[in-house]
């Protein structure tokens, strides 16, 4: 089953609008309010420095998507049936991926679609090798249908006309040639083992296909976050100021302060290669970490990037307690993909050159 098929199941549940769902609404609202009150009265334990204690091992693994399916409109909460359909659909994907493969099968014998958006020659990642999570985000008793909570429709705001035009030009250039295979520097940061895939290290720190684990350690003047994916390490200083704008850093420069029980982190000075969702180097990211229970941290982020988007946008993710320790991510160990990609591109170029020479020679002979 494809992810879009799972989403379609949830959408059908939303369109059905069974009367029973309306009958449950007051009860659900009451439960959500009770849960929210419990979270608001929870007091996080303090560490040796008197700070709210965020330390431990956490995971943001979830099957809740970044953006909301348009069919849900402005509705953030999923019904019990929709949650069940989504989580059961994901379990079916996992079960399908766990089925044994015939060791004598050829590449042409394998399924064209191996799930989670991977098809054809990209089927090196089937469901047996990934671990995106099994559950929908649950915070305050609300089962979330998207990570984005603002704008109200759970979708990214519109891009500015200039940013949209540049994005179209970049896509057209990528489709028109093979420049992205010219050298290692043109490949993604994750492929080059420089930084995590997607935006796992952040900011913002978001879940992806696997390795969605983090360890938080606090001192008096710093909060350090070890990221499992590509063993990144974020340093959040609790003192000082940002460096000049021309000093660009991987994961940006993060400065935090305590606002009651919430750690508020402002990040600037991002490197241009780390362009999350097309973000510019002038973007400002504000994150908030609030321990809302013994086993959960509410993690929220707001991105203000007026050069790219017409409005700021905000998302929320649950960091749930998990067992440790984090293991080393040996990124280049047995990594044959990157040299294979580049070698394949060089072979195609040689074949194209040889073909062009042969065509030219044949054409010249015909002219004589």
Describe this structure in words.
The structure is a single chain. The chain has 368 residues and is of the alpha+beta class. The protein has two domains: 98 residues, no CATH class; 224 residues, no CATH class. The chain has five helices and 14 strands. Strand 12 and strand 13 form a beta hairpin. Helix 1 runs antiparallel to helix 3.
Overview in brief:
The chain is of the alpha+beta class. The chain has helices spanning 3-16, 19-41, 80-97, 161-176, 337-367, and strands at 56-59, 113-115, 118-119, 138-139, 142-143, 148-150, 213-218, 222-227, 232-237, 253-259, 262-268, 284-293, 296-304, 313-321. The chain is 28% helix and 21% strand.
Note the gap between the termini: 60 Å
Q: How many β-strands, per DSSP?
A: 14
Strand content: 15-25%
Q: How are strands sequenced across the largest beta sheet?
A: 1-7-8-9-10-11-12-13-14
Q: For the CA atoms, what is the radius of gyration?
A: 24 Å
What's the domain count? 2
Largest sheet: 9 strands, mixed, barrel
- The helix-strand sequence is HHEHEEEEEHEEEEEEEEH
Helix percent reads: 25-40%
Structural class, please?
alpha+beta
Task: Tell me the overall shape.
Answer: globular
- Helix segment tally: 5
* Uncertain residue ranges: 1-35
Oligomer: single chain
Average pLDDT value? 83
């Amino acid at each position: 089953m494809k992810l879009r098929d799972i989403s379609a199941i949830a959408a059908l549940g939303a369109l059905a609008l069974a009367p029973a769902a309306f009958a449950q609404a007051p009860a659900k609202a009451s439960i959500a309010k009770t849960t929210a009150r419990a979270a608001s009265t929870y007091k996080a334990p303090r560490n040796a420095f008197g700070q709210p204690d965020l330390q431990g091992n956490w995971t943001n693994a979830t099957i809740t998507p970044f953006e909301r399916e348009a069919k849900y409109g402005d509705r953030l909460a999923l019904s019990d049936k929709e949650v069940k359909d989504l989580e059961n659909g994901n379990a079916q994907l996992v079960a399908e991926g766990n089925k044994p493969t015939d060791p004598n099968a050829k590449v042409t014998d394998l399924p064209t679609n191996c799930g989670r958006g991977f098809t054809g020659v990209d089927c090196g990642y089937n469901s047996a090798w990934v671990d995106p999570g099994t559950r929908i985000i649950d915070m305050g008793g609300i089962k979330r249908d998207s990570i984005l909570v603002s704008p109200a429709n759970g979708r990214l705001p519109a891009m500015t006309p200039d940013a949209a035009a540049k994005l179209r030009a970049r896509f057209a250039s990528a489709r028109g040639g093979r420049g992205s295979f010219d050298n290692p520097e043109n490949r993604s940061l994750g492929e080059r083992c420089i930084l995590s895939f997607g935006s796992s290290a952040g900011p913002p720190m978001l879940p992806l296909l696997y390795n969605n684990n983090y360890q938080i350690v606090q001192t008096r003047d710093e909060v350090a976050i070890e990221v499992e994916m590509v063993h990144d390490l974020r340093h959040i200083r609790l003192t000082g100021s940002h460096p000049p704008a021309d000093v660009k850093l991987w994961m940006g420069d993060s400065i935090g302060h305590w606002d009651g029980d919430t750690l508020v982190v402002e990040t600037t000075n991002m490197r241009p290669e780390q362009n999350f969702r097309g973000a510019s180097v002038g973007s400002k990211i504000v994150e908030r970490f609030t321990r809302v229970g013994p086993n959960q941290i509410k993690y929220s982020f707001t991105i203000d990037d007026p050069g790219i988007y017409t409005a700021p946008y905000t998302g929320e993710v649950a960091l749930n307690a998990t067992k440790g320790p984090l293991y080393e991510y040996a990124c280049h160990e047995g990594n044959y993909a990157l040299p294979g990609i580049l070698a394949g591109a060089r072979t195609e170029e040689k074949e194209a050159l040889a073909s062009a020479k042969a065509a030219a020679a044949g054409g010249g002979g015909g002219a004589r």
